[in-house]
Specification:
This protein has five helices and eight strands; from the N terminus they run E-E-E-H-E-H-E-H-E-H-E-E-H. The chain is 34% helix and 24% strand. It has an eight-stranded mixed beta sheet with strand order 1-2-3-6-5-4-7-8, with helices on one face. Strand 2 and strand 3 form a beta hairpin. The protein has 166 residues and is an alpha/beta fold. It has a single domain, classed as Glutaredoxin.
Length: 166
């Protein structure tokens, strides 16, 4: 279920799956974490709503200084690529305090998952994630065409996103 609301009341509705808020600057959607069967890929389950689109998956944490710096560095790129068929998907775990996460995500816009500790561990293991931030660019066919631990820079991200759109 999706509801359009003002950013000021996002926190009050965080328990509702698929909460959506829109401001003059950015659109924000909070997704309920999927619960795939034990042998299914959590990564694939997270991507399921975005089938057929190019997706930048940003695995991050609120307490991660490089993550925060990278998010700021990506703002101009996101603005420049506005209107392109790109989904910005942010995934964090329970180590990111809920109140902090709620305050930070309106500035990011995009689509968000805050997964459980068990799901976080599953995601880390299945994708071989060695730290945050970690990025994956998935093309419209569902293929990971770029992955990087650590922020490679805004220009590299822009180049890789444009390549994935082709």
């Amino acid at each position: 279920m999706k509801k359009t609301i003002f950013i000021m009341i996002v926190a009050a509705l965080m328990c509702v799956g698929g909460v959506q808020a829109q401001s003059a600057k950015q659109t924000l959607t909070i997704h309920e974490s999927p619960n795939p069967v034990a042998d299914a890929s959590l990564f694939d389950a997270l991507l399921l709503p975005f089938r057929g689109k190019t997706v930048l998956v940003d695995v991050w944490a609120t307490w991660c200084g490089p993550c925060r710096q990278a998010n700021a560095a990506m703002k101009p790129v996101k603005e420049e690529l506005k209107g392109k068929d790109i989904v910005y998907l942010y995934v964090t775990g329970e180590t990111s305090p809920l109140a902090t996460w709620e305050k930070m995500i309106p500035d990011l816009g995009g689509d968000h998952y805050r997964v459980s500790a068990e799901q976080w561990k599953k995601l880390i293991n299945e994708r071989g994630i060695e730290g945050v931030p970690t990025y994956f660019i998935v093309d419209k066919n569902g293929k990971v065409v770029f992955s990087q631990v650590g922020f490679p820079g805004a220009e590299t991200m822009k180049t890789q996103l444009l390549k994935a759109l082709q």
